[in-house]
Amino acid sequence: MSFNYDFGKATCELVEAIEGHDYKRSKSGLFEHYERLGVGKTKQFVYDQLSLQHNRIHYFNFMMVNVLAYTNIISSKGVLVDLTTPLTGLIKNASADYLEIVPCLSLIPEQNRPDWKIWCKGINPKVKNHRLIIDGSGSLTVFNGPDPMTDLRYTRANRYISVDLRTIGVADQAIIIDKTPPEPGTVNDGPLYGTDLLYTKNFDTLCANWLHFYDPESGIAFYMVSAGSLPDINVTDIANLTQYNRKTHEACVPLSTDQYLEHGKTYYTTVWAYNGAIRQRNCVGISNGVTVDLTKPVPGQVIDGNVTGFKDVMFSPSPAKVEVQWRNYYDPESTIKQYEVQVERAPNQTNDYSVIRDWVPYSNTTRSVKWLNFHLQHKDKVKVNLRTTNGALNTIVNTTDGFVVDLTPPTLISLGDGLEPGKDIEFQSGNTTLSANFKFVDEESGLDHYKFQIYERHQGITQQIVPHKHGAWLEVKDDIHRTKYTHTGLSLHQGGFYSIRVGAVNKAGFVAAFDTSGGLTMNPHNQTAHSPHTICCLKAINGAGLGSDPVISTPIIVVDEDEPGIVIDGADRTEIPIMSDFGDRTLTFHQSDYVHSQCTVYRGLRACLHGDMAH
Length: 615
Hints:
Layout lengths: L1 E5 L4 E5 L11 E2 L2 E5 L21 E2 L2 E5 L5 E5 L3 E2 L15 E5 L29 E5 L51 E4 L9 E2 L4 E7 L8 E9 L10 E7 L4 E5 L11 E10 L6 E5 L3 E3 L8 E4 L10 E2 L5 E6 L8 E11 L7 E10 L4 E4 L9 E10 L4 E5 L3 E3 L5 E7 L9 E2 L5 E8 L5 E12 L2 E6 L7 E3 L7 E4 L9 E10 L4 E5 L3 E3 L11 E2 L2 E2 L12 E2 L3 E2 L8 E4 L6 H4 L6 E7 L4 E7 L12
Parallel strand pairs: 12-19, 21-28, 30-38
Antiparallel strand pairs: 1-2, 1-4, 3-4, 5-8, 6-7, 9-10, 11-13, 13-16, 14-15, 14-17, 17-18, 17-19, 20-22, 22-25, 23-24, 23-26, 26-27, 26-28, 29-31, 31-35, 32-33, 32-34, 32-36, 36-37, 36-38, 39-42, 40-41, 43-45, 44-45
């Protein structure tokens, strides 16, 4: 089988072709491809060098681990090893007694007991499975005549002496000679087979289970069970001896009101096992006792998420993750036995909850659970149930207040440079502050906080200037209802282009980040700032009528042309009427040598376009 699965949309696509073992699983974002080659695997295990014990059941246990590291253990139904032939009664003066290999079906009385055929499972060619005996006088196994245990040696003859009047019949129950008692097993307290409880929550019933009682010769015929308040097989003050058949291995004894169990006291169950011999023998086993605990565990706290500091999670940005943590659960009498976790989901923020993961057990040392394999949808409400069980099997269930799955970031309503809401300025005169106005909304989880970055484009270089570390954010959590932000203490360059990146973070942790279109900085204290100037602004519009952010050039300053002045030798001021036409801009230079001194005066020179560089 080959298929694609989209974890984002939860859609599955069955693919016709299969690549095979030479290809690995592919993945693109939330879209993954899987292949299942074959419907299963077959494996045979044969062990022929074992020393199996007679009359014991043997099992195969298989531990299976898949590629995701999930583990499971399964067991076979078991097989009973029987290495002996059936036992007979007393045999004396036998003329034949030997073992041979005989096919099972040839021994079945076809007309009388055809139902025995189901027990023929084949034979082992190495094991002699059939015992043939011809007994003699004094034997107590096979008897002639209709009277039990009486061997009829003679009978009255009739005229039908030459006719074969014999028929084959099989007794319903064998006569077994067994002089030994059964082997005792284990008696456990509690109703769960194979499990021994140290505590019980019940006051009106007392339960026990037992196992491994057996008798290799005649088997177990029945059990007798009693209960008492002391670890003594003869004390039956809680429940008198009651008989149970050999197939029963659990029993719960109802108690009358005057025999109700008391909180904090310990009680014991006794089991007698009787074998199937003519003169039945028995063995006895007694439990180690069960203490009554009528109280439930003491609840603690359980919350969604697994945040450090035991902080409750109200919203989640993950469609796959469910986490829960708890603390301070205890039981002063029987301690905590285990925890179980169940997950429920309600679609579209309703209260119509359904179970999406049933009870999963965890040990009593567990304090948190994390799953990463859910397929949650946007606006799902998820809550987690925690069931706590003490040693007496008393349980309590506590539920978290739940969280909402929010898979979308906040929505931008408006964004612009400057402080005026809904407006976007393209120029500013200040060189120490920068402002932005904005509006975000989040209908699912609500806004949590804002964060900012400031970018500068100057002399062809674009860089982040706030914070100075590239990629870092300046987080602001003082007022979630804010609609504007001003950053002070800047040193902005004249003619530099500045923009603010505004990030809105919702309570699920999703971020919506947008940049302002940016603005040009003009310094009013510069002497050229009052001169006429020209700016080129370029904006692209596509065929659908959608326009890009404007790109703005540096300003073109309009100034007067450079003007020449007048240069006059000497400094006796005889040319004052001529120089007065050039205003007050007068420069005088003196030069001296060993013979004479020279003085030069020039006035009216002005370089507005390029500026005065040197004279």
